[in-house]
Amino acid sequence: MLSAGTPMITGGDEYLRSIQCNNNPYNLDSIANWLNFDWSADQQNFNTFAKRMIEFRKNHPSLRPANFYQGIDTNSNYMEQLVWFQPDGNVASGQYFNDANNHAIAYRIDSSEFNEQTSAIYVAYNGWSGNVNFTLPWPMVQVKTGIE
User: Is 83 within 8 Å of 106 (Cβ atoms)?
Assistant: First the structure.
């Protein structure tokens, strides 16, 4: 829901349905392909999260750009349309991207360039098995997110 492209989801993703590692279960008449609406508490919680993420995406046109993001500032506010960051808040370099030991990345979209009331959206991804602390980059440290 936070990428610029079309969200790629399938029936059941919104409540943590698993297809048991079968990437092609369409031809199976088995539990691997059935939808079960008797959800656990975790599935209920994830369904609520999924609904809120869909609403968040709908409310932020900068997450649905008509063209590719540009790495330049087009509205003179000192923020590029899109910038990638390391967890420490520094701009991610080619060296950071090419290091297979790095499993965390963040990006900031200058949503003001897309006529939004919010000035920026910051998204952090942790693909590591442990906790990763992210430091907000400039000027995010001065911006209130409104997200609780």
Answer: no
Over the chain (148 residues), the average pLDDT of each successive run of 10 is 88 83 74 83 95 94 88 83 94 95 94 84 93 86 43
Sign of CA dihedral 49, 54, 55, 59: positive
Do β-strands 121-126 and 82-85 pair in parallel, antiparallel, or remain unpaired? unpaired
- Tokens read off for 29: 């008449």
Handedness of CA 39, 40, 41, 47 (dihedral sign): negative
| Number of neighbouring beta carbons within 10 Å of residue 117 | 9
Which pTM value belongs to this model? Answer: 0.78
What does the domain layout of the chain look like in residue ranges? 13-59, 68-142
68-142 is classed CATH 2.60.40.1180: yes
